Structures
1.
Amino acid sequence: MRTQISAYISDETKAEVEAFVKRYGISEAQLIEEALQHHLQALREIPCDLVVPTRLMVTEASMKRVAARLASDELPTPALRGLMGDDGE
């Protein structure tokens, strides 16, 4: 049995899909089915605390704190500098 699903994707992703299926001679349906299978397998095998979300969701309050921090003259913390790969040299 087969089921059809629908999803909205960016123009950039659509272009990548079209280029891939043209290059490898497979259908979009095959590519999407395999991609979903690989993704679901990874989610089963990788501990959930190691899976990094592809999108970051912030609340209105946390966005206000971020904006205030960006507008301040406060220097970044050593932890943030390390995270960003800026060791000060």
2.
Amino acid sequence: MPALPPAAQRFTLTTDAAPGTLARVLAPFAKRDVVPDAMEARRTGDAHVVIVTCLDVDPTDAKLIRGDLLRLVGLRDLNVECGAPRLAA
């Protein structure tokens, strides 16, 4: 995966492959009015691997989204990558 720019977040989830999973993954973003810049999903056996990238997201929103994703039904694993910290001017 390429490096993330400042203020970017990449959420990588492994979930049960079930109807409605992808909609449930995107719901926390919609709830915070955050539009992902990219989303990739693939099924591997009985699991979905979903990668959601947001290039400019408020850190507070990212923390709240992470909390919502951790409560996702069928979640097996969640990894959140943060972009480089912003440097003070």
3.
Amino acid sequence: MIVEFAWKYIILFTLWATIIFYFFHLMEHWGYQIAFPYEPLGTIGIAVAFYLGFKNSQSYDRFWEGRKIWGSIVNSSRTWGMYTIDFVTNLHATNQVSEEELKAIRQRIIYRHIAWLHGLRLHLRQQSTFSKNYKSRMNKYLSGRPDQAQWDREVAPCLDQKEYEFLIARVNTPAQIIKKQSEEVLKLRERGLIDDFRHMEMMRILEEFYNLQGKCERIKSTPLPRQYAFFGRLFVIIFLILLPVGLVGLFSQMGHSFMWLAIPFNVIISWVFITMELVGDSSEDPFEGYVNDVPMTALSVTIERDLRDMLLETDLPPSTQAVEGVLM
């Protein structure tokens, strides 16, 4: 994977260092002694490293916050499944219903929540105005922008057809799914299938789902400030252009025959700096469906398996497996 992502950069760094080395080599053979001190370049490198460290730290904070939000979604979803199965009973009902109908109600509520999970994932992976356009060599690690077919394939089976047609036409489908859950819980309270306390508890969990979705949308709709991204890349480029000049001068002090060592050292140092830049760049938006992002697909399937297992179903979807070390 390192070679796949970095081979173009390695070739570029090698060519640039070779050009600089060849230029200095010719100058010395023609009798010109050109020497550039390495100390100013080292100072620039330290400054760039600090800048990249700050940018990467902020990018990781955005990723880690997204992962913590989805961790809360996992826990709250299991609680929702437990409440649905244990609270929806005939215990307080004036007109009791059959056990088969109770099972159908519980299944409908839990399946609607599964639809919310998949819908939220697809909603967050929609392209925004500042979403990155990754190059073709990275596309196989990119889950792709959700289309209507994916919504029909992953969300529709969990909902009644008329309900799905209504919800998919809304601007924010996941938010409307939670509202639909609220309407269902209210009807259960009116029928006496849950009491006031249980109604409030289930509404509290729905409120938590709204809060968690809002936190995800806040990260999705707020990019890392562009001055950090733009100037970070600019500073790295300036440093990498100057680096072979300083390295050739440094190794020339060891003797003319050692100047060629500037080429491999330039490639290694340049690769480290450009990798630091690219890592921070690809981690700042954790919901794009890329190699470094929150594995929402795997988390959604994990929750679906847990909830359907609570319903005592045996035909569970298979766990999401990593492909070439990448878990989406």
